[in-house]
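Please fill in the sequence for the structure shown.

STRUCTURE ENCODING:
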């Protein structure tokens, strides 16, 4: 069954570095290779009481393992403590009447 997943990718790293826009765009290749469609938003978050820029990625899929793989890839590549993951009922789509999902 499909679910909607919201992944919260903090851009500050534990060693004081920052995931720059160029580096984020490179990571987006992982998203594009994994999911047919997704949404990215710039949001503000906090981790361990410290404010940080965050990328919020929303995807609707039936493949939770792929979502968790993407989260784990971000953790490993950018030495993160965690990636926030919220799971909710699947997003619905308004489509052309000729298309069936």
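FILLED IN BY: designer on duty
SEQUENCE:
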């Amino acid at each position: 069954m499909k679910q909607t997943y919201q992944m919260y990718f903090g851009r500050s790293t534990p060693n004081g570095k920052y995931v720059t826009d160029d580096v984020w765009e490179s990571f987006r290749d992982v998203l594009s290779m994994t999911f047919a469609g997704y949404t990215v938003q710039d949001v503000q978050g906090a981790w361990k009481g410290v404010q940080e820029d965050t990328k919020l990625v929303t995807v609707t899929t039936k493949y939770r393992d792929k979502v968790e793989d993407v989260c784990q890839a971000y953790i490993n590549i950018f030495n993160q403590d965690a990636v926030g993951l919220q799971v909710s009922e699947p997003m619905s789509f308004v489509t052309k009447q000729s298309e069936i999902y």
